[in-house]
Amino acid sequence: MGTSTRLRPPAVLLTIGDELLTGERVDTNAGWLAEALTDLSFDVREILSVGDEEEEIRNALVRAEIRAAGGVAILTGGLGPTLDDRTREAVARHRDVELQEDPAVLEVLAARFRDRGYADLPPLNRRIARVPRGARVLPNPEGSAPGLELPGSGSGSGSGSGSGAVLFLLPGVPAEMRAIFRGSVRERLDILFPERLAPPAVEIVRTSGIPESELAGELEACLEPLPGVKVQYRPSVEGVELRFSVEGTAAPARLAEALAAAKDALSPWRFGGRGTSAAEAALEACRQAGWRLAVAESCTGGMLGARLTAVPGSSDVVVGGVIAYDNRLKTDLLGVPGSLLEAHGAVSEPVACSMAAGACSRLGADIAVSITGVAGPGGGSETRPVGTVWFGLCRPGAPVRGRTERFPGTREEIRRRAVQFALRWVRMEALEAGAGTGPGDHVDSGSDSPR
Amino acid sequence: MGTSTRLRPPAVLLTIGDELLTGERVDTNAGWLAEALTDLSFDVREILSVGDEEEEIRNALVRAEIRAAGGVAILTGGLGPTLDDRTREAVARHRDVELQEDPAVLEVLAARFRDRGYADLPPLNRRIARVPRGARVLPNPEGSAPGLELPGSGSGSGSGSGSGAVLFLLPGVPAEMRAIFRGSVRERLDILFPERLAPPAVEIVRTSGIPESELAGELEACLEPLPGVKVQYRPSVEGVELRFSVEGTAAPARLAEALAAAKDALSPWRFGGRGTSAAEAALEACRQAGWRLAVAESCTGGMLGARLTAVPGSSDVVVGGVIAYDNRLKTDLLGVPGSLLEAHGAVSEPVACSMAAGACSRLGADIAVSITGVAGPGGGSETRPVGTVWFGLCRPGAPVRGRTERFPGTREEIRRRAVQFALRWVRMEALEAGAGTGPGDHVDSGSDSPR
């Protein structure tokens, strides 16, 4: 990376548990910690998963201390009360220190069990209070076993400059691990490794409706005059998430410049930042426009409605919808003429438009969107292959419009892509209505064409 | 484990990629391979993730060969065409063999690119055809980079008895990795390690509607006379998945005994085996009963419909549904009297029943189920706290029935639990109708009460 060990100290993650090696449990801790440590300017060099045996843990610790020398090794798992939890013992033996029962930890434990109706602490749980001599206890707000911190072996002072690594022992339960990391480890790392590189300035921009390659083309020109701005593309069925990052002292200012430069290019596709869903963005645009929304779904079978109503407070925008899976319901509930279905088939522009119009008027909405398509795996034809989806969009008093798309992927992926397309269309429509042009939302309607 | 190395050969997994160490990508390959190898009677001793640098990969390979001596090490990632993919180079250097361009691989690659409209193979992609001398090429049915197999270093014969490990190199793209594992690696392992312990006999039973602790209580009595039967409980929002496993020579017979003994206890809750969804089970029960199904959803907003229509071929059972999110639609589309809504509120037994009755008659179904509840986080009250959900079930000509449940969790979890409950109710109803009592499906209606 071209930076010194002090600026970006090495880190190793060691996740412990037989169930990780049999595939019974998926290790979510390693990925979470890797991201958290990277964001704190640590250089994560290795992730190692081993079983619960003491010998295995000790063997892995030898490697971890070498690979993370002068930095930090974080161990997760094996801190529970049962006899197969051996991480405490392995670490104590590895560092050649004794395990001592810590009265303060014991008292917290006993209180915890009293609260849950136990008169005495179950004997096995006393094991949790055994702490390697010299270790610092890190409180666990979510569970019984506290986190533990052991200074680097070469120094004994707790600073990161020793020949070994500072060790953190955290429980394997993800909620407990994260709570201790946020509540204690982060602060301890700041104290132990004060000279770290400033973490990169990072901004997440979520987009939909444009493939990664085109997005990269759009951004290249905007960002060329701004060296040092790194953009990562994370494509998924929901669209492409962009991670803008800049390192160095002027990072926040340079990041702001980059976002400003990219703003117009991203505008037709951007729907929000980290944690914003396309459904939230569509709802917010409708809310700004003062619109209520109805849906008419065939091949997605309710998925669009489900995505919208997953957002708390969606009821002020969403009226409801019709799942017109059977063609008879397209006629009975949405008023699609039988002749239209016969002449064009259910997967067609006229039927999509008629569904949207029916939903808009019958459900009393300000905007209605419809979806009808061939999600597969069966049902495709030469003219309407699997992945063909028609959409209709209706506003009272305006002509109904139809659009077609051809989506790749499995049945589920085609359905999810169709939902994402519908959400994007509704959002753009509401933003273009003008009333909804919120701060920072520039709409270039010319670019808003189906790809 | 008490078994010799030959019976349960050691295995190490080595996943490669900078993005694993920064948390940008979650490693799903390690868990998948760990389970697959465990099921094939390998003893997975360690999972190691390192970055893309050649030096890092070689360092990890030294460890992997020691830890998996006499067994197998599987590497994933770093086989792509770009220059930062260095796994081939690292392995060749580690084993001190040359990389040679393989004409057969090159021809497959060129054909693949011709099919995609390229006149010539892009130069970088020729890197994919470079194969370490002595390696066996394993075809990749899903992508460009083939898998590679290198014999154990101590023997050169390809048998697992050498001092090093047999190495398999697989692409990091999960679909490609899995396809090569299923298509080639599994067979190669059978040839290379013929004397392995018979894999345990395993059966997955999926249940819903009963918590893990009660299920364990039910099973304990049935399974007590059958030592050696191991049951793992994997709870999720969708219910509890049971993994029955038995090791040893008489494993299949003992497993069959266990499943027979547990059959009655599990019957009200079991909806299928590995890979079966509760939606599929409900659809199949309706299909057997000759019923067509309609849904009326309020708080789930289309999620029940989406789950049902996620199943290919669901259109022969699912008519469709109404997403009656706004109370006005409950009246307009489902015929729920306004007076009923006013007197009891939307989250009530009378309204749930009226929604189901309206869906059944207006949508022309043989069975209709309704959901209305408080999914939160807002909207709860003392009498109807967040998590309270009412269900209605209607069959033409029979009295409509209502049920209430109180679900824990987040908004999304409450909605998913509600959908799961509705699916279970529909399935039980269709099975009880008698016409649908399929082979092996015993229904104890007495136990079919809400918990």
Strand % of chain A is 15-25%
Helix content of chain A: 25-40%
Q: Which oligomeric state applies?
A: homodimer
What does the radius of gyration of chain A come to? 28 Å
Structural class of chain A: alpha/beta
Query: Which fold does the CATH topology of the largest domain in chain A refer to?
Result: Molybdenum Cofactor Biosythetic Enzyme, Chain A
The major sheet of chain A is characterized as:
6 strands, mixed
- In DSSP terms (H or I, runs of 4 or more residues), the helix count of chain A works out at 14
List segments of chain A where confidence is low: pLDDT < 50 over at least 5 consecutive residues: 155-161, 435-451
User: What integer is the average pLDDT of chain A?
Assistant: 90
CATH class of the largest domain in chain A: Alpha Beta
Tally of individual domains of chain A = 3
> What's the number of extended β-strand segments of chain A?
17
Strand order, biggest sheet of chain A? Answer: 2-1-3-8-7-6
Shape of chain A: elongated
CATH architecture of the largest domain in chain A: 3-Layer(aba) Sandwich
Main interface: chain pair and counts:
A-B, 69 and 67 residues
Determine the CATH superfamily of the largest domain in chain A.
Answer: MoaB/Mog-like domain
End-to-end CA span of chain A: 39 Å
